[in-house]
From TrEMBL, chain A:
Residues 4-125 form the NIF system FeS cluster assembly NifU N-terminal domain. Binds 1 Fe cation per subunit. Binds 1 [2Fe-2S] cluster per subunit. This is Nitrogen fixation protein NifU. May be involved in the formation or repair of [Fe-S] clusters present in iron-sulfur proteins. Residues 217-279 form the NIF system FeS cluster assembly NifU C-terminal domain. Belongs to the NifU family. Fe cation binds at C35, C62, C106.
From TrEMBL, chain B:
Its cofactor is pyridoxal 5'-phosphate. Belongs to the class-V pyridoxal-phosphate-dependent aminotransferase family. NifS/IscS subfamily. GO terms for molecular function: cysteine desulfurase activity; iron-sulfur cluster binding; metal ion binding; pyridoxal phosphate binding. This is Cysteine desulfurase. It catalyses: (sulfur carrier)-H + L-cysteine = (sulfur carrier)-SH + L-alanine. Catalyzes the removal of elemental sulfur atoms from cysteine to produce alanine. Seems to participate in the biosynthesis of the nitrogenase metalloclusters by providing the inorganic sulfur required for the Fe-S core formation. Residues 4-366 form the Aminotransferase class V domain. Keywords: Iron, Iron-sulfur, Metal-binding, Nitrogen fixation, Pyridoxal phosphate, Transferase. InterPro entries: Aminotrans_V_dom, Aminotrans_V_PyrdxlP_BS, Cys_deSase_NifS_bac/arc, Cysteine_dSase, PyrdxlP-dep_Trfase, PyrdxlP-dep_Trfase_major, PyrdxlP-dep_Trfase_small. Homodimer. GO terms for biological process: amino acid metabolic process. Gene3D superfamilies: 1.10.260.50, Aspartate Aminotransferase, domain 1, Type I PLP-dependent aspartate aminotransferase-like (Major domain). Its EC number is 2.8.1.7. It comes from Formivibrio citricus.
Length: 287, 400
């Protein structure tokens, strides 16, 4: 069972702005019948100032598809068309306090229906270039399409390279077999998939002293920080001993559904960089 | 109000008799059956008794033909890998398009990575196999045929007895995944040509984590797990004693209740189907309605999506499952519905109601009252739906 947020459930059980909009002057119809979602978005746009006066949806889809449609209509009402176009699928997911990674495509569909409706109003044609594959990396929500494209474009041959390019496989590592299979498929190799990667932490020379080691840890954390800040979070280094690195997650990271995945990803990166099998320990209040 | 559990093909409640039989083996009779003392020997006796009960449920000729495993997936993997190992000259596998993933993913893996040739039998719109087509695929190259006894989504029964005879004709081994059939359909292995059969405890009111594999006496076999003499060396590893005892009692109870499945349970299933279909237009039962398990009703509700139906059902206290893509996180609806050629707009809206001997008439009546309203509510949201039927102006979105 999906771990839907209360907000998703609310918008699913009590959808806002559902049904037909008779006086609509903009219509967007988007669907992916094979993955079981289709959406008609209707807008009533004020021709004088491009403000969206009303928005209604009709959706064939799962709980998160219906909730995303409902959220989208709430978000764009009262906005001008240009303002509405600024709404990203991440914004829709954020409005709903998050969606499971497998369900992010539901928010993408909402965003595309909006683009299609606005194109329809402006007399343009909307070309949907969005394609999806099977979700491979559940930690970072990376699908097979993206991995295949990146492998092909860069002639990647190892899982580690794929992780560096896409983040896929960088946290829990359970998708490595799937990534290997995609690499094999793309490179059309006849022989079996490459042997599994050696343990991720390659032994490297130890930093000469404690201070150097600490600096190295700080440097790794600095490279991760922008990613967390993008999601309105942050990280603070609290303490370090021989085996453990104690950190505090801040802001948006606290209580986030992805908290464990984030920590696993950071831990993996620290292990690789330090060449030591350290453990990352989250602390909520140190001291 | 209590929740109504209509998802017994997913898993079942442990029968209270099963649980009470298991309990002493956690606390008092905790011995290892291999041990040379009284703690061990008592446990050994309990395992022997459980084995005889499973033998009786499956109508096997000998109790030693039953090997306890951890689950049906293990049984299936063991059976398939063994069959290939003992017939290295034969490189072809035949299975069907409507097998459980425990069979299909393994067979596809063997074809893609181990160089075996895989033949997947198609099914018709009712989920039936064409035996003529099957016959043409059988050859001296066939190592193994693996066909489910009953499909988990629709309950459709397959002619495994006949298909096993046909496989024997070319010297191929025949395995059947009888997870859904065991305890619901009569099985009599000693009079059949079936070589291997898998069952799972938790589908017949035993706990999760116990399964069994039938291995016909005299058939060549290679174990998957090596390391100990347990199960006469055919499945190493300390016995899951509590699970085995539970499965034994569950097998005994299943035999006693077999008739109820085809009378009481079937009558309730038919009542549920009729009750829902009478009030719901554009809905139909999938699978071979003439030839299926008595407890399973798979209904396709056109123009709406299954996960949304399940969320509303859950809200109304009814547990069921769906073949929609969204319930699994995949991008495709159920492979079973696709194999039967069910159109996407119906395949995504399939809901499986699976009953058990615990299901009551009052529960069925509550489900009949709730389902049509949920369907109507979701259709109001659907762009494919008009006022009382499919939208007059066909909805044709730009497809990604």
């Amino acid at each position: 069972m999906w771990d839907y947020t209360e907000k998703v459930k609310d918008h699913f059980f009590n959808p806002r702005n559902a049904g037909e909009l008779k006086e609509a002057n903009a219509v967007g119809e988007i669907g992916s019948i094979s993955c079981g979602d289709a959406l008609r978005l209707q807008l009533k746009v004020d021709p004088n100032n491009d403000i969206i006066l009303d928005a209604r949806f009709q959706t064939f889809g799962c709980g998160s598809a219906i909730a995303s449609s409902s959220a989208l209509t709430e978000m764009i009402k009262g906005k001008t068309l240009d303002e509405a176009l600024q709404v990203s699928n991440q914004d829709i997911a954020d409005f709903l306090d998050g969606l499971p990674p497998e369900k992010m495509h539901c928010s993408v569909m909402g965003r595309e229906a909006l683009q299609a409706a606005i194109a329809n109003y402006r007399g343009e044609t909307f070309h949907d270039d969005h394609e999806e594959g099977e979700l491979v990396c559940k930690c970072f929500a990376i699908d097979s399409k993206l991995i295949e494209d990146v492998v092909r474009a860069n002639q990647l041959t190892t899982v580690e390279q794929v992780t560096h390019y896409t983040k896929a496989g960088g946290a829990c590592a359970t998708c490595h077999e799937k990534i290997e299979n995609l690499i094999t498929k793309v490179l059309a190799k006849v022989e079996a998939a490459p042997a599994p990667e050696a343990p991720a932490f390659v032994v490297r020379p130890q930093p000469s002293g404690k201070l150097a080691r600490l600096k190295k840890i700080e440097a790794v954390i600095e490279t991760i920080r922008p990613m967390l800040q993008n999601d309105h979070g942050d990280i603070e280094l609290v303490d370090v001993d021989d085996m453990h690195i104690f950190v505090k997650l801040l802001g948006g990271c606290v209580g986030c559904q992805m908290e464990k995945m984030t920590l696993a990803g950071i831990e993996q990166k620290l292990r690789i960089e330090l060449g030591e099998p350290i453990q990352l320990v989250p602390v909520s209040d140190w001291g | 109000m209590n929740a109504i559990y209509l998802d017994n093909n997913a898993t079942t409640a442990c029968d209270p008799e099963v649980v009470s039989a298991m309990l002493p083996f956690f606390t008092e009779q905790y011995g290892n059956p291999s041990s040379m003392h009284q703690f061990g020997s008592r446990v050994g006796g309990a395992i022997a008794e459980a084995r005889r009960e499973v033998q009786a449920l499956l109508g096997a000729a000998h109790d030693s033909e039953i090997v306890f495993t951890s689950c049906a997936t293990e049984s299936n993997n063991t059976a398939i890998l063994s069959a290939l190992k003992v017939q290295e000259g034969r490189r072809e596998i035949i299975t069907s398009a409507v097998e459980h993933p425990a069979i299909l993913s393994l067979c596809k893996h063997l074809a893609e990575h181990e160089g075996y040739t895989l033949h997947v039998l198609p099914v018709d719109g009712r989920g039936r196999i064409d035996l003529g087509y099957y016959e043409n695929l059988l050859s001296e190259q066939t190592a193994l045929v693996s066909i489910t006894w009953a499909n988990n989504e629709t309950g459709t029964l397959f002619p495994v007895l006949k298909m096993a005879e046909m496989a024997k004709g070319v010297g191929a081994l025949f395995h059947t995944d009888a997870v859904q059939a065991a305890g619901k359909a009569p099985i009599n292995l000693k009079d059949s040509a079936i070589d291997m059969l898998s069952i799972s405890g938790h589908k017949l009111h035993a706990p999760k984590g116990i399964g069994a594999l039938y291995l016909r006496r005299g058939m060549r076999y290679r174990p998957m797990l090596r390391g100990g003499h347990q199960e006469r060396g055919r499945r190493a590893g300390t016995e899951n004693v509590t699970g085995i005892v539970g499965l034994g009692i569950a097998a005994k109870l299943a035999r006693e209740h077999m008739q109820a499945e085809w009378t009481t349970v079937k009558r309730l299933r038919d009542r549920l189907e009729a009750g829902i279909l009478l009030q719901t237009p554009y809905a139909f039962v999938t699978g071979d309605t003439e030839n299926r398990l008595p407890n399973t009703a798979n209904i396709a509700f056109e123009y709406i999506e299954g996960e949304a139906i399940l969320l509303h059902l859950n809200h109304a206290g009814i547990a069921a499952s769906s073949g929609s893509a969204c319930t699994s996180g995949s991008l495709e609806p159920s492979h079973v519905m696709r194999a039967m050629g069910i159109p996407y707009t119906a395949a995504h809206g399939t809901v499986r109601f699976s009953l058990s001997r615990y299901t009551t008439e009052a529960e069925i009546d509550r489900a009949i009252a709730a389902v049509p309203q949920i369907i109507a509510k979701l259709r109001k949201l659907s762009p494919y739906w008009g006022e009382t039927g499919p939208a007059q102006k066909a909805f044709q979105p730009e497809y990604a």
